[in-house]
């Protein structure tokens, strides 16, 4: 049934509410010639993506006064990124049947994830979803009220649902409306630059809002004091040059590491095909791949190459694996073997390394390897899917229009008409599965400090597509419950501001030869070139040495800046340099102790057990180590030791399968708040 244009428009152009004026500061601190405005509340939430807004709304509904400080109210990945149909992963209510333990097992199947965290996400998912529906999220239903679902990455039964390409932006819209209805103050253009810590607990943050600069506060500092702190600043998207994150995603990793907060699974990130952020950053998963466009590269002279034909053995294999990029979207080392779908990613990476640009052409079917493309010559699962979708149509653009017209609309909004011209793409960094280590209530290693959304390292090595958005909603709710149940602590100490301000000012040095631009170039190039999909022991070790040297240099010389915006950028890049060293420390330790390829990383090793093969060329240089199963049973923890980063491993926490909840036994634990003690 054709979907009328206004319906497509409403799901594509998602307007955000207008923010009211920020509350005026209730007090000021005069320190070293600066006059700093101060805001106080029970809880400070840093970030206004889907996770931060959820935390703030859940806090306020429990009577906890919350305030949000955010670098960009409608910035970040939730508001600004997506894919063909952005995915939410939840318990299945129909069809395949479900139980929370099997859902938890699926969520943590890649290893390095606590059983408790997986169970929390599983059991919390229907509530997260229902609340969003209650707030107006237009999730598609059948006539009986069942959510419509499909299969996505690392999802064996089809637990994914979606409101289309803008799902997470629609989540932000629904939650933002609720936050404004609840009068939660949102301080926009206000980025936290240092956590305030005293008596071993989080007591707020020092932030910069360049627009609030005054003659006696020229860098626009703002102080937030609170008894609890929720880090919801998203992922460190700026770490990589080749990235599908929107621009300006710095996250809270460097900020929190600097404060001594422990991180986990920093080796684990997702990489996959997408359009670059220089244009319109978007994942090319789902139907973009399932439509089976012609994939080609172009050299500087304008010559075109059907390069996948050098990799796959038959046209059927080439087309079927192009299709599978739809629900096997993230790169996975093992899927390079046996001519599977990650051989596609490897081929794209190599084309780009050879200086050729790579495109999807939706107007042409895949070009032949040995015989012409035919819808009758596809692998059985592929043919079945296309048939069920009613998309056994002549061209990719017809198949895409049939399966997902919104995906075409979306690019049109950004002046890319894929019904007329090919779409350039690359393999990009997309998500950090690791992050700040949290317990089952979202609490970090720092008392009073919680991390939710992509800031938190709740995922294991792999995660089902859509589990990121679900985890953000579930853990934001959990953190709010835990904060509401915390015993009242002493009022935050404004005396913490002075040393924090001094530390920040010590990093800013107008005379330094290091500035934000050089930091950016160096950090991003190092991460993309040596800590991307392919990692080799020597290269990672020397990248780590360079990252360490850079941070030591910053420690000595500071970072140059000009004006308030420049100061903010300098501090954010300082944090990215720290985050980069922490990731490389983890990666280096993992490889040095014999860790193998897993998740989205292939550990290259000439003595490795596996090597991908291609039809017409040698891939011997891509021989890689197999995953070591015992690594699944532990997590790699990273923490600043003042001088650099220290690593430790921690065995996974398991759940007793026999210990099923019992109403009579467990109700008192709920009534007395004993459940929060864990
Ligand atoms: C292209 C793409 C497609 C994706 N598709 C899916 C999908 O289909 N399903 C899925 O589950 N996940 C998907 N993800 C991942 C998912 O979008 C993110 O994990 C999720 O949106 C993160 O939400 P968040 O609230 O934690 O962070 P964000 O939405 O990134 O919000 C972070 C907020 O923090 C603010 N901020 C940052 N630093 C500071 C600071 N220092 N001080 C104050 N504020 C700060 C930002 O301005 C922003 O408001 C995708 C990601 C990308 C890039």
What is the general shape? globular
Q: What proportion strand?
A: 15-25%
> Care to count the β-strands?
22
Radius of gyration: 25 Å
Low-confidence stretches are none
Q: What is the typical, i.e. mean, pLDDT? A: 95
The hetero molecules present are: flavin-adenine dinucleotide
Largest sheet: 8 strands, mixed
Please state the structural category.
Answer: alpha+beta
Helical content, roughly?
Answer: 25-40%
N/C terminus separation: 51 Å
**SS field, number of helical segments:** 19
Please give a structural write-up.
It is built from 19 helices and 22 strands. Helix 2 links the parallel strand 2 and strand 3. Helix 16 runs antiparallel to helix 17. The longest helix is centred in the C-terminal third of the chain and has 30 residues. It is globular. The relative contact order is 0.15. The model has no long low-confidence stretch (mean pLDDT 95). Bound molecules: flavin-adenine dinucleotide. The site of flavin-adenine dinucleotide has 48 residues, from helix 2, helix 3, strand 7, strand 12 and strand 16.
Summarize the helices and strands and which ones pair or pack.
Blueprint: H1 5-12, E1 27-31, E2 34-46, H2 50-61, E3 66-69, H3 76-80, E4 88-89, H4 100-107, H5 115-134, E5 160-161, H6 167-181, E6 186-187, E7 191-198, E8 201-208, E9 221-231, H7 253-258, E10 263-264, E11 269-275, E12 282-283, H8 287-290, E13 294-298, E14 304-305, H9 315-324, H10 342-353, E15 357-361, H11 380-388, H12 396-403, H13 405-413, E16 423-432, E17 435-436, E18 449-451, H14 467-485, H15 497-507, H16 516-530, E19 534-536, H17 537-557, H18 563-592, E20 602-604, E21 634-640, E22 645-651, H19 663-671
Parallel strand pairs: 2-3, 2-9, 3-6, 9-18, 19-20
Antiparallel strand pairs: 1-2, 4-5, 7-8, 8-9, 10-17, 10-21, 11-12, 11-16, 13-14, 13-15, 15-16, 21-22
The structure holds flavin-adenine dinucleotide (FAD).
